[in-house]
Amino acid sequence: MENRNVVDGYFVGNLGDDLFLRVLAERFPNTQFEIQTSEKMFEFYEGFGDFMKYKSPIQKKLLRFFPAWLMSRMFKATHEKYNTYTLLGGSLFMDVDYAPLYKRIRDFYGQVSDNAFVIGSNFGPVYNQPMIQWYKKVFQHFDFVTWRDTTSEKKELIDARKQTTLPDVVLGLNVDNVATIDGQFVLFNLMNIGDVTENTDTINEYLKSVVFNIKLLVSQGERVKLVSIDKDGNDKKFVSRVKREFFSNVDQVTVAEYIEVDQVLSLFKSSKAVVATRYHSLILAWLFEKPVVSIAYSDKTTNFINTWYPQQKVITLDELSEKMDIGVMQETAIPVEKLTFLKTQAKKHFDSLGAALNREMG
After folding, report:
1. pLDDT per residue as tens digits for the range 324-334
2. Strand (E) positions, 190-323?
3. Contacts of 260 (CB under 8 A, 6+ apart)
4. pTM for the whole thing?
5. What DSSP string runs through 27-63?
6. pLDDT in tens, 271-296
């Protein structure tokens, strides 16, 4: 059987995870990887690289009912082991309804692969204590883990010699050939806060604050583009709602949807400044050296900032108020020297995977 290199993650048209795939393809242009996604996304991921796309395999379905140790024994009795299994993405370890199933899937693939890796993740930020114990056992079958913040590494889920902390994977993306688009504008990344909290006061305060700040930018003569960085999720609906309910007759405020990766990269490259709610909108603002203010909806953002660039201006949802001037136009971009360091370090995420692929080829 040919070498099989499986990449697991959330490949559903979310920009951050999509950019992880882009970086992977850039790093290993001559290696075919297998990714699981829905059939409706096959065409979208066609241009990302040499990825074999498939729907959920039978093993994942059976793991709903059978333990990983039994499934791995059955698999190894009838199949050759995978060459590599790579769990690729950011917030892959969360206390959600399917957390036990995710744990079994990762345990299974760790046992049926010659080499298993986690690349570019953070643990949590929403997790429970049983998850800590689960993954200490699961990671016994993994060869190396790269985290993107020191908070995750300090949980000591795996032997210290098998883990490290590096800047976000996307900071290693090659953006030399990204096109620019006409016009000067502030890019305002919005998200549906209701996806992360049920607190109606927080949800309403976020809405009031972003509307206030968009109006403030317009009053200062700025053009504003509202952007979501998921293809078909609730962020996109929220952006449409803000435009429709508050700025339907304001020509200076327009909407930019996530259609494909290069188009969104061009938006960030061409912007004057960025207001970033989603985590990877902050990363892209850094990557393109744009002044940015981060509205942190999660500890994963503040943990990352505190690890790598604590001088970054960040406002948490708890700190946000209706008439607070976010002040993005008064900010400066991340220093070039710091960015150069982060980009160099980010490229190291794939070193262990590269060594495993080279061993197999040799």
Report:
1. 999 999 999 99
2. 224-227, 253-256, 273-276, 292-296, 314-316
3. 44, 47
4. 0.95
5. H-TT--EEEE--GGGTTGGGGGSSEEEE---HHHHHT
6. 999 999 999 999 999 999 999 999 99
